[in-house]
Design a protein that fits this description.
Blueprint (H helix, E strand, L loop, with lengths): L11 H22 L6 H14 L3 E5 L2 H11 L7 E4 L6 H8 L3 E4 L14 H4 L4 E5 L11 H10 L2 E5 L7 E4 L2 E4 L6 E5 L13 E5 L2 H10 L4 E3 L2 E2 L10 H11 L2 H21 L6 E2 L7 E2 L5 E5 L2 H10 L29 H9 E4 L7 H15 L2
Parallel strand pairs: 2-3, 2-4, 4-5, 5-8
Antiparallel strand pairs: 1-9, 6-7, 6-13, 8-9, 10-11, 12-14, 14-15
Helix pairs in contact: 1-8, 2-8, 3-4, 3-7, 9-12
The structure holds pyridoxal-5'-phosphate (PLP).
Amino acid sequence: MIGLSSIPSFDLKRNYQRVKWEVLRALEGVLEGQHFILGPEVKAFEGEFASYLGVDHAIGCASGSDALLLALMAIGVGPGDEVITTPFTFFASTSCISRLGARAVYVDVEPDTYNMRMDMVMDAVTDKTKAVLPVHIFGQMCPLEQIRGPLKERGISLIEDCAQSFGAVRRVDGELLRGGAVGDISCFSFFPTKNLGCYGDGGLVATGDEGLAGRLRSLRVHGSTSTYFHDEVGLNSRLDEIQAAILRVRLRHAEEWNEERRAIAERYRMLFAAKDLLEWVTPPVEAEGNRHVFHQYVVRAKDRDALQSFLAERGITTRVYYPLSLHLQPCFRYLGYKEGDFPVSEMLTREVLALPMFPELTPEEQEAVVAAMADFYRR
Ligand SMILES: *Cc1c(COP(=O)(O)O)cnc(C)c1O
């Protein structure tokens, strides 16, 4: 390494410095109030989040994984049911299905957006299909307008996994909608590195349906609508009051941070072209009608593993999301899928590489990343 300091894949410390005093003031408010479970900060945050999203009801919970579990519980997914989803995503998008004794049915993904193929969803529907669970992967929305109508006709729920897409927007049937405002229920994660993250675990479920909202509020407190009386067995899964206070601060800045991510993505694209790297590196595609918020900046790269090691030697941290398609995970072997069943997802696991991406990444750091990539391919 020659005088280059290291470049992380993300850096939460830089972001904290931008909001430190606002966060400390918010924390002090919670500590003075001593109301820690489902207090005024959670209530206020849920209201602010719902109006940001343009959806009537927002229900905070303990994590994005719990948000998915609660959503499926609210629509009554159980043994014998099928849920259609993508094999190219984080584990939690499928574990919630198996956790409830239902079966994950996979549909392959697009090679350019990495999102689930909408044109194959209806072919995967059977009379056991209870829900479709698309993931807006890496920060851009699936074209849900292609399946929303047909699913409604068949009485199948559409549940959006928005863990990576906070702030994403899409023109849906002529209307600009946020990710999470298209389906019947949407699930968010506030894991610290997400586009809207807190300082621990946190999640949220949103819905426009009053009945489902009531069910979700009950399910997050042990299936109880009145203390110590239980209609069903739920979870203990609340959004923490301290995290809600932090999220209220960070929500006020999230749009600005997403714009910064978009500018970074644009600069990467220009640098690849300027360095003539497009023969080896395929940048992510923003589909027509989408506002991509680049939770991750994921390229497809020739000779990916060697490139990743080369960059690591130069102090540049990159990540592979995801190294193994979910249909090939040992714990989902019982589903009966095999290698070759989802060729695009499997190809991506060999080619994708997430470059450093966070709002505070500097142009100089980006130039160093792309220069190192150019050195690798021209070595
Ligand atoms: C992060 C993530 C989750 C889970 O969120 P947690 O808050 O970590 O439980 C679910 N789905 C996807 C696609 C994610 O990226």
